[in-house]
Amino acid sequence: MINDLDSVDWAAMTHAYGPAGDVPQWLHHMASPVADVRKKAFNSFYGAAHHQGDVYPCTVAGLPFLFAMADSPATPDRASVVALIVSIGREAVDRDEVDGFSISPAGDEHTACHDAAALMRRRGESVVGYARDADVRVRGAAIAGLGLFVDDAERAAGLLRDRLDASHGITERLLVVRTMGDLAQRLPAARVPAGEWFDVLADGAEVDADVRFAALVQRARCVPESIDDTTVPTAIGLLRRITPIPRAEENREEAKSRIRTGACTCPVGVSPDSDVPGHGAAAFADLERRGHVHAPTTSLLLTFHEVLDARVEDRTDLLCEQLRSPDAATRYDAISMARGLITSWRADHTHLVRTLAECLLPHDSSTSAAAAEALGALGPLAEPAREALAAYVTAHRTTHRPDAWASPHAELRRAHQQAVLALAGLGDGRALPGLLTALDTGVDAWRAVPVAGRLPQAAAELTPRLIRLLADVDHSREWPDTSPTALASALAELGDPAAVPALTDTVDAAVRCKQWRTASPVLAAIASFGTRAADALAAIRPLAEVEDPTTCTAAAHAMWELARRPEDVVPLVQRLLVTERNFDAIDLAGRIGPPAAAVLPRLRQMLNEQLEQNANAQDGSAALNDSWSLVHVAAALWDIGGDAEAPAVVPALLDAWKDNDFTARHAVACLHRMGPAAHPALSHIQEELARPRRGGQPWGWDISLDLEIQRTCRSILRNLRNEETSRPTA
After folding, report:
1. Over 80: is that where the pLDDT of 262 sits?
2. Is it true that the peptide bond before 698 is cis, omega within 30 degrees of 0?
3. How far is C-alpha 719 from the geometric centre of its chain's CA atoms?
4. I need a labelling partner for 75 at 20 to 30 A (CA). Which of 35, 81, 163, 334 fits?
5. More confident residue, 216 or 111
6. How far is 363 from 412, CA to CA, in rounded Å?
7. How many Å from the N-terminal Cα to the C-terminal Cα in the chain?
């Protein structure tokens, strides 16, 4: 059938990047005997015709050819073809079925998903055949399809039961049990037989531990009310039974010997492409690492954590077991799960953080790097790991080389750098030698710069080095190797006024090259020095007239902080607010306070317009965008007008906060400044402190931000209570 590719009018269709005329070539190359050609073809198809899971008409048109390749014994990599078929089918079925009923096709995408889902169901028997294939890789790719494309619940359940009896290896067995869970979730008629099967497997003393564990998880997934106090301890016991046996004792002794002698068996890193910035190459490497699953139980454990959800203590016990597993793959995969729990749920995570720090293993650089990176993402909550991080960094510098930051061994270098970054994030001076190596040698200096500002006690050593790097930035390049924005931010955090001339020169160079995204944050860095940067005022004043409004606003902000002359700055703010909702200009007006009273009429107008738009809004995304206007305008109104504006300000702040979690920081900061006038927000503040999940979900936000919001809310409550107790009684 591959010879019939030309019979399809591919040019009349499109994919993620334009006309689909290249799809037939990719399909043809998927059957190539050359492995590299096949790999490139699959990558191209996934990247364009199945981009981020999307299903286009050209994707559907390719399915018959994919089935033909999967059916042919002559196809070199049938497993990859079947995996692509199942991936397309899964996306199509998921989008075609919502809450148990079919979407009415509307538009090319819905039509394509509807057509693909229908085709997959018609070819269900082909998928059944692939799931029985002699090739274990083909079976593994096809098994999930039994839960997706066979609509007879009884038959599908029977096929999966039979498949488990015939399965070989832990990966295939776990996949079969998982697919039964998928089937029960998709088809109500399958829930009873699936539940009964899970009961038999989970409670069967003669059943293999891996199957019992999988059944226990799927039973919890399909019947959440079955979870009780014995569920997680039972799961931990089964997990211990399926964990691979550790390496022989003599191998562990060899590893200890390597640690004592300082020998490193990590591969020496390949020199990076000079045309690719270090941060860009690292970003792609991170994506590659995060796309891999290393232990066969990982998918199952991820599902178990999703099911356990708010049972934080149970999840912590399970994660500690995973992180202490004798199996390196299980430990490694658990690190991201532990990070996810800590960043999502408010609780005392001290024990879990310390267990995470136990993964800083001198003989396992990959695991150590992942653990250190996770600890670095925890901000202040990484405090219980401080000494473990310091010991790890010190051991590297003592055992391997003093400049371990620049080690030629790629994995060891990454592990050391991540540990230094996490330690610096805690403000610990023991990170300084690593940062100095980075700044002096230029080796991955881009990693060191963002945390350099966390060590103000070392400003005398860090500031000159950051200034030198800032002077070396080529502003004619779109993306310099070392971010001038990060350098400026670090210098602002260090707070050494010696940086002001260099920052002023940087602004001048950025403006000349029209690099506006550099000019504005560097101006903000200068502004952070306040009157200590007064000498820069003459250079900054003309920038309030440049063509870029963001830079104009940043210049006006700097003028205010450096000289505090409202007669110079307020007219600029008025002009900036005439036509645009410039949040930075609004914030600057609030920063100026009562001397900016001239902008109050405009701010009131903006608030009323926003409230009217919100009342008429039909689109939820529009409400999210509008909430930012509400919170900025309301805060500025209070800061300028005070108590007289409170009746309008408090409801606006609460509306913004309710519509968009990400405005919380601005809302609570303003409520804190309002003192007793914030009393109408009392119940909302209490609700915020009472909720166990961190804000900003489902994406989550920085832990430091969540802790800041909690601190501010607690301070508001204390102030309101103190105000009530100090109020004289009648």
Report:
1. no
2. yes
3. 35
4. 163
5. 216
6. 9
7. 92
Enumerate residues 6+ apart whose C-beta is below 8 A from 502.
467, 470, 471, 491
- What is the per-residue pLDDT for 96? 72
Question: Residue 141 and residue 145: Cα distance in Å, rounded?
Answer: 8
- Tell me what pLDDT residue 558 has: 98
Calculate the alpha carbon distances from 499 to 464, 480, 536 in Å: 8, 20, 11
Q: Which residues contact 341 (CB under 8 A, 6 or more apart)?
A: 305, 312, 315, 316, 319, 349, 352
Average pLDDT (644-650) is 95
Note the pLDDT tens digit of each residue in 226-235.
999 999 999 9
CB atoms within 10 A of CB 595: 15
Residue 652, helix vs strand vs coil? helix
Q: Is the CB of residue 157 less than 8 Å from the CB of residue 194? A: yes
Task: Pull the structure tokens for residue 555.
Answer: 């210049």
Q: Does 108 score more than 80 pLDDT? A: no
pLDDT given at position 113: 92
360 touches 390 (CB < 8 A): no
Confidence of residue 362 (pLDDT cuts 50, 70, 90): confident
CA 239 to chain centre: 28
Residue type for position 293: V
Residue 423 tokens read as 């330690």
Angstrom distance (rounded) from CA 689 to CA 710: 6
> Phi, psi (5° rounding) for residue 360?
-80, 80
Structure token digits, residue 256:
């200890």
Q: Which tokens hold the place of 198?
A: 């899970």
Q: Which long-range contacts (CB under 8 A, 24 or more apart) does 103-110 make?
A: 108/56, 108/57, 109/54, 109/55, 109/56
Nearest in space to 277 (alpha carbons), one of 522, 519, 473, 503? 473
15: part of which helix (H) or strand (E)? Answer: strand 14-15
Write down the pLDDT at residue 280.
55
Q: Is 682 exposed, middle or buried, given 0-12, 13-18 or 19+ CB atoms closer than 10 A?
A: middle
For helices 312-323 and 298-308, give the axis angle rounded to 10 degrees: 160
Phi/psi of residue 377, nearest 5 degrees = -80, -10
Question: How many H helices and E strands in the chain?
Answer: 37, 4
What letter would DSSP give residue 725?
Answer: H
For residues 569-580, give the mean pLDDT. Answer: 90
Does residue 357 have a pLDDT over 50? yes
**CA 326 to CA 322: how far, in whole Å?**
9
Can you tell me the distance from the alpha carbon of 68 to that of 55, in angstroms, rounded to the nearest whole number? 19
Q: Give the Å distances, CA to CA, from 290 to 11, 73, 234, 461, 707.
A: 36, 33, 29, 36, 27
Please report the pLDDT score of residue 271 as a whole number: 46
Of the chain, the percentage scoring pLDDT greater than 70 comes to 88
Q: Where are the alpha helices (DSSP H) in 515-594?
A: 516-527, 537-540, 549-563, 566-576, 583-592
When pLDDT is averaged across residues 513-534 and rounded to a whole number, the result is 96
Per-residue confidence (pLDDT) for residue 617, from 0 to 100: 64
Sole residue written with tokens 């008629």: 189
Q: What letter represents residue 313's amino acid?
A: E
Residue with tokens 């060899």: 254
Ranked by mean pLDDT, the top range of 359-363, 388-392, 621-625 is 388-392
Q: Please give the pLDDT value at position 263.
A: 39
Distance in angstroms (rounded) separating the CA atoms of residues 449 and 490: 7
Q: Which residue do the tokens 């003459």 mark?
A: 538
The model's pTM is 0.86
